[in-house]
Amino acid sequence: MVYLWLLKGGDGMQRMARITLFVIILLGVTIIQSYLFAKEEVEEEMTVMETVVVTARRTSEKLSDTAENVTVITSEELGMLPAHDVGEILNFSPGISIQGNGGFGRPVTTTIQGSQARHVRVMVDGITFNTQSEGTANLSQFSLENIDRIEVIKGASSSMWGSSLGGVINIITKPVGEEKVPEGSWTQTIGEWGTIKDNFDLRGMVGDLGYFLSGSYMDTDGFRPRSDILEKKGYNKFALPLNDNVKLTSSFGYNSGDVADFEYTSLGFANDIEYWTRYGSFGVEVSPDEDKNISITAKTSDQDTISEFFLLGSTDPFLLSRFTDKFYGIDLKSELSFTNESRLVSGIDLGRYELESTSLTSDKDTDNKAIYTSYNYPFGRMDLILGGRYDDYDEFGSLFSPSIGTVYHLGSGNTLLRANISRAFNAPPLIFKYIDQAGRLSNPDIKAERAWVYEVGAESQITSKLWSKLTLYRSDVSDAIEPVVVGSAVMQQNFARHLRQGGEFELEGRINKIVSLFSGAGYNDIEDKITGETVQGGARPRLTYDAGLKLDYKWFDFNMMGHYVWWNETESSNANDEKFIWDAKLASKFRKLPYGEYSWFIALYNILDSSYWWNEFFPQPERHVEAGITYKF
Fold first, then answer.
1. Contact 235, 251 (CB under 8 A)
2. What is the pLDDT of residues 179-214, one digit of tens each?
């Protein structure tokens, strides 16, 4: 019967989807069976639910106390996974898929739960990176080496963060040093196509001043003709306590890239992209006692992008466009903890977004003023979380986003139930409203998208060796923005009502001291409520699978990860998807040297050498190898 179900009926893609689903189920069953018959030699315990997060409610709290669907990726995991950048890391998490544009080093955006990429708010230490020229953020520009953890809210979070209809990604950088003797690391990586990458980090203290410094350099010829990339990145962070209650903090980062973006032979032109990003913050934190905290932070980012277009065979550009996105913001936040363990978080966000472009006759800007609050009230086994935020935009008017959530802890607390209802929105980028250029028309009447979002879930630390999580969601979107063809150009318009619903499942188990397995799946259904038809295109996946194997041996770590996506694109994109792409990384444990420690690693990408793309213009690299060495002191 199983054989007939797998191989009979439907086309090849449908059979492959059924086979892949069957493999995922077998993997999950294997985890459970392996646990049931495992020996008592396992000593390590999984502590997923004890992870501390700060993004969901803008305060430190345990993952098990959040009503939102949150995923945390730690610096330890970042170092072990086969990935070049933040986008590739996120691709291994159920419910998240990246829109790759032709391999590492190229602009990468992400979708969460079938949302559009511009619905996902991307931040570094709370600094927003979504541009007004696209509405998205390029995840490939962020170096993995200076990241302490990545916190992802899967689903809308407008009641705390404002414009974020699809979710929030907050990249949290490593802390400053706490020792007088400096410590740090240096890593060199080499790979195919002349790829060389160097990065370093250094941390310590000078007097009372704590510091963290990092930098990286990457140069590659690329896997296709005319696809070379040069990247340079730097970051620093400082913290200075003035006394026991007052601390000053500051940070500054710089990213740059020179990307030769292929030859589009069927279209007769080639494209080069150069970008420069500068961002930073300065803050004051006051903590009169353990129960009170007040902070004020000034933030800024400046992102410049130049695109040059060349006729094939020519070195002189026939078209040059430049966009400069600037953000200035001030955040004021207070936290109060009460004797019954309840907590109140309130704050004010002030932001100004500016857009300059060669496609504009004058610069455009919009101001955003917002006030927010969140109250967590625990009683018995339940936590009640109330939230609300009021946003006022110069360009898009006023929006109120309330939320109510609850977490119920069952039994000994190893199993919990979550539920959350919220009002959410997404403000369109200024480019939709103001810029007319080749193939694009402005829409002066465009407005923010709104949605009611419902989410329920269950999470269980079934045993010390087995963990699972299930989340179901529904998002009723009004004034959804979709592209409309007007003559020979495209205009973004509010005309649709979308119902976006689906779910995701994760299962992780430790078989013994050495072996761990992971499996996951995500499903998204997007329906146009006016026509009743399924929405296709826009890089919004219909179905995803994830699977992984981890070996933690005495002298090495081995991680193999696979990700499957059915993008459900229109025929015009000629998508070549619906297949697993497997990557693996083998890394030695750190070995002692007279003046430090060292380790080596080898990474193999696209193990099966699969041909894959979501759009035929952006194929992903064939199988390739990288290797490197890290020295720590």
1. yes
2. 999 999 999 999 999 999 999 999 999 999 999 999
